[in-house]
Amino acid sequence: MQDGIDRLQLFFAELSTRQGVLARQALGQPAPGDEVLARRLVDDMRAETGMDGSISGAVVATVWRAHELLDLGCKGDHAGTVRVMGWVLGLQSKPGAFSEGCSPPRHAHRACEHFISGFFSPAPPMHRFAPVMFPNGKVFRAEPAARFAISCLALRAALRGRMEKRPGVEQHVLSLFQLQEQWDDWSGYFAPDMIVAGIHTLAFAAEAHQEILPRLAGAVAGNQSEDGTWANADLFHTLEALLAIGTRDAQATVRRAVPALFARQRIDGSFGSTAQQERALIALRSLIWAGKEM
User: Fold this and answer.
1) pLDDT in tens, the chain (294 residues)
2) Residue 169 falls inside a structural domain
3) N or C: which end of the chain has fewer CB within 10 A?
């Protein structure tokens, strides 16, 4: 365990990036200039943000910008966060959301406009959004899954920004609570990576619903393979969700995934070139948590 952490410590030691700052925080070894660096990163991020609050109108980049600002200590009422989230929240009123429309299969699974609402739209319904890579390196290739996942990423930003009382946000959360009753079966209507995206989001909505956390952790643990991975679900995408759940059962599931992480770690501490720093950060947090007592 420690060898993997030591490699990651060296990997992040000199990085002047958001991931570098967060990794050194996780290790309990912030660099002397990290506080100043974090402020500079926030200033740079705000400078890159357009007057409309977006990153050149790019949905994933803009939603992720909200997460980046929150990660670096900007709260929901920070001017930079407010501007970005204003643009993101505007996606709830646009056509093309996952919840729109109905078909017999969707209706049977209560995944249509007759049962769910509040979802964010990344693009008009006639424009293809997939394939799309998320910041953690997960690629969503199916159109419904991509639209569902980006809505979950946007909802997480809203919840982290303490916007849970907004009617649209409340409705989206309620819709996910309704859908999660079908998430034990990872070979059914909902693809595993869709389920993981939803579980990750509900973990942030569980402050008033603590009873949901064991069920979410159990759904992930119950579909884990003997080698610690998940069939048809991205390893880092899934570990990120477990970190958000934060329960003892989730921690045990992360521990079982440690051999899979070690099998993928390279000599420089990273896990390949795809989303290199983000995946390394997820792995570092997972390894640190796996080694702790709860």
Assistant:
1) 789 999 999 999 999 999 999 999 999 999 999 999 999 999 999 999 999 999 999 999 999 999 999 999 999 999 999 999 999 999 998 999 999 999 999 999 999 999 999 999 999 999 999 999 999 999 999 999 999 999 999 999 999 999 999 999 999 999 999 999 999 999 999 999 999 999 999 999 977 677 899 999 999 999 999 999 999 999 999 999 999 999 999 999 999 999 999 999 999 999 999 999 999 999 999 999 999 987
2) yes
3) C
* CA nearest neighbour of 196 among 175, 227, 174, 223: 223
**Distance, CA of 182 to chain centre:** 20
Q: Is 225 left (phi over 0), alpha (psi -120 to 50) or beta?
A: beta
Kindly report the pTM of this predicted structure.
Answer: 0.97
What domain count does the chain have? 1
Q: Which ranges in the chain belong to alpha helices (H)? A: 2-12, 18-27, 34-48, 59-71, 79-89, 104-108, 143-160, 167-179, 192-204, 212-221, 235-245, 248-264, 276-290
The answer to whether residue 94 sits within a structural domain is no
Asked whether residue 141 is assigned to any structural domain, the reply reads: yes
Please tell me the distance from the alpha carbon of residue 75 to that of residue 96, in angstroms, as a whole number: 29
- Could you tell me if residue 265 is inside a domain? yes
Q: What angle do CA 142, 146, 148 make, to 5 degrees?
A: 120
Q: Fill in the amino acid letter for 258.
A: V
Q: What are phi and psi of 140, to 5 degrees?
A: -100, 120
52-78 as b/e: b if 16+ CB within 10 A: ebbbeeebbebbbbbbbbbbbebebeb
